[in-house]
Amino acid sequence: MTTSTNLVNGLDCRIMVARATSLVLTDISGETNRVELQFTNTLENIRTFGSNWPNRVGGLRDVTIPFLIYYSTTTDEALELLRTWFLTYPDESRIVQIDIPDDTPGSDRYTIPCKLQELSINAQSGTSAPIEVTGTWAIHGEPTISTIAT
Predict the structure, then answer these.
(1) What is the C-alpha separation between 138 and 112, in angstroms, rounded?
(2) Domain limits of the chain?
């Protein structure tokens, strides 16, 4: 099989998060360098008499989105938005929108209602690297996957 000529990289992915329950999305791409969409389908084994092989039934689907941002002291950036969400509105669902490979027509757009499941600030002494903040968004409703038209 020949190598695909349609491979893309993640250099220009765009990550947007709703600020509060509004539909206004804030671009946090400038403080983010990793986002992972984890789609899972819960499967259960069914074994019946007379069969050596299992059958599987599923249907319970889930999406979690681990991410990494960098600690910033500027307001209106990713950490301030996410920390406020976690501490002040812990049960609130917000829209997370991820455009891959970028936000131009033809790219994939994932629009996912989420709750902020965890947020971890990983400060370390002995390094001059920026402080990494990791977290996970967990789906709260049905995702939409579309192609950016304009």
Answers:
(1) 9
(2) 14-42+56-147
pLDDT beyond 90 at 5: no
The arithmetic mean of pLDDT across residues 105-114, rounded, is 96
Strand, helix or coil at 49? coil
- DSSP letter, residue 21: T
> What does the chain come to in residues?
150
The model carries a pTM of 0.88
Amino acid letter, residue 134: T
Report residue 129 as tokens. Answer: 């690297």
Task: Say how far apart CA 140 and CA 143 lie, in whole Å.
Answer: 9
Top-level class of domain 14-42+56-147: mainly beta
Q: What DSSP designation does 4 have?
A: P
Token pair 């996410």 in the structure block, residue: 82
